[in-house]
Amino acid sequence: MIIGFELNGKQVSLEIEPRETLAEVLRGRCRLTGVKISCEAQVCGSCTVLVNGLPVSACTLLAYEVRGKRVTTIEGLAGGSGRLHPLQQAFLDNFSFQCGFCTPGMILAAKALLDENAAATDEEIIGHMNGNLCRCTGYLPILKAIRQAAAVMRGQK
Ligand code: FES
Ligand code: FES
Question: Whose CA is nearest to atom 3 of ligand 2?
Fold first, then answer.
């Protein structure tokens, strides 16, 4: 089947198998390997992408379900000039990753929260990020980065 959707700001039309997941299509057909596949069971959050601004697990969503929708992956986050999104910069500034496998999903999940509420409390941030697991950092550097990005994003509004 052929599906059309917006991918990182550009309209795309792709021929896919109806059984393919969004993660398989993004990685295999679009070469967007920032979408990480780990548990494949909607548990770890590594494969998180944004669909119409909301975080979804691309490992369990069938690709045809994004027809006509807006999909954002980590590759679409930096500005046109290559300037990093405040969350990307904050993750770098705070050493908020080690292996980095969870990082694209973390950043996209956090973006969904801060786009909705850049004044989120620590409790709200922790609750929102509950579905994104990290085996390396101990989570505190991630929390620090999200706080820093939130402050930047509040300043931009
Ligand atoms: S790989 Fe999708 S939630 Fe773990
Ligand atoms: S940085 Fe390694 S899993 Fe999070």
Answer: 134
Q: Which atom of ligand 1 is nearest to the CA of 38?
A: 1
Find the largest Cα–Cα distance for the chain.
Answer: 44
Closest CA to ligand 1's atom 3: 42
Give which of 146, 65, 69 is closest to 103, Cα–Cα.
146
Residue 151: pLDDT above 70? Answer: yes
The band of 157, judged by pLDDT with boundaries at 50, 70 and 90, is low
Residue 73 half-sphere exposure toward CB, CA atoms < 13 A: 19
Q: Cα(80)–Cα(74) distance, rounded to whole angstroms?
A: 14
Q: What is the pLDDT of residues 40-67, one digit of tens each?
A: 999 999 999 999 999 999 999 999 999 9
Q: Is 46 in the pocket of ligand 2 (CB under 6 A)?
A: no
146 pLDDT higher than 80? yes
